[in-house]
Amino acid sequence: MNQAQLMAQVKKMQAEMNKAQEELAATVVTGSAAGGSVTVDVTCDQTLKRVKIAKDAVDPEDVETLEDLVMVAVNDALRKANEASQKRMASVTGGVRVPGLM
Q1: Which residues contact residue 55 at a Cβ distance below 8 angstroms, ignoring those fewer than 6 apart?
Q2: Using 50, 70 and 90 to split pLDDT, how confident is the model at 91?
Q3: Between these two residues, 90 and 36, which has the higher pLDDT value?
Q4: pTM for this one?
Q5: From residue 17, how far is each of 11, 65, 73, 84 by CA, in Å?
Q6: pLDDT of residue 99 exceeding 80
Q7: Does domain 22-84 correspond to CATH entry 3.40.50.1370?
Q8: Per residue in 25-40, pLDDT tens?
Q9: Domain map of the chain by residue range?
Q10: DSSP 3-71
């Protein structure tokens, strides 16, 4: 493979990565806790888009439980977003780990 072919492949991979990153920024995953009493939507570029809390999850005498439920739901959504990002980027890089991408 000559240098021109290598550069063409690099440019193609960069374009595919940019497209994948745009797709991930538009992909929303949902995390939940307590059987869906608390749900959060996060994009795969890890932007929190929505938090929804069911009325029955709100107890003014027990704010700590609600805080824990929100934390669990956010962590669930972030885990799903990370998994989706890794899977999508692996499809672009052919499974080769590229520093700074995953």
Answers
A1: none
A2: confident
A3: 36
A4: 0.80
A5: 10, 40, 29, 14
A6: no
A7: no
A8: 999 999 999 999 999 9
A9: 22-84
A10: HHHHHHHHHHHHHHHHHHHHHHHH-EEEEEEGGGTEEEEEETT--EEEEEE-GGG--TT-HHHHHHHHH
